[in-house]
Amino acid sequence: MPEYDRLTTLLQRFKLNVTPVQAGHAGLVIALDGEGAPKSLLFSPIGGIATNDKRIAFAAILDWDKGGNPLFQSLPDLVDCTIAQEPNAQALARLICHEAAADRCGSASVLNRLCEVLVVRILRHLMLQGHAETGLLAGLSDPRLSRAIVSMHDLPDRLWTADDLAYVAGLSLSRFSELFVEVVGETPMAYLRRWRLILARQDLISGDRVSAVAHRYGYGSTEGFSRAFRRHYGKTPIQMRREVAA
Fold first, then answer.
1. Of 23, 135, 139, 171, which is most buried with the most CB atoms under 10 A?
2. Global pTM?
3. Which of 117-146 are b and which e, b meaning 16 or more Cβ less than 10 Å from the residue's Cβ?
4. For the chain, domain boundaries
5. Phi, psi at 26, each rounded to 5°
6. CATH fold for domain 142-245
């Protein structure tokens, strides 16, 4: 089978924003060892990391569209990574600490990009180690389910069927459906509907017409799309757009 990328579409769709803060209110913390070298990373999608480590070199809030990003919602509450024996990760952590301390022009943009690289490394580590038991991260960690999930992410406008997705995963329909629910926590078609509505919300916020968004994601009518959107978000597309614009 051809190579595929489990993270790129998610990274393109959800922008990471970094705001340096004091430890105790952070979603990302870099701590130093006794010699001043980066030794560990603490990462939490819910924030509020509490730590008594006096050698904190960097702490920041990470905003990765928590209300809409399905990957962010599936992460463990706290990830603790030791990087003392990883020169590349240490070099990246040093660069982040230096950039934050220097506070030069463009630092905010540079920190966003550097922290995005760091988060990607953390996600790779989590998928490789299989830390997630259920949810999207667990699905992306599975070599069979991830092919179907990436197909949905990359081609949301395709008229996917459960049979199509099972074929992509290399599984029988019954085994695919059973495994998907067991690992991801919902049926393949339920996840596809949720993913399309997440993208639809983004497109509406960007200013796309309701009718165009409905057609883009396979809804037969604007009314049908509006009903599905309201069931998921508790408000119609027009109401949501007005709230964002207010």
1. 139
2. 0.90
3. ebbebbbebbbeeeebeebbbbbbbbebbb
4. 8-129, 142-245
5. -105, 160
6. Arc Repressor Mutant, subunit A (1.10.10)
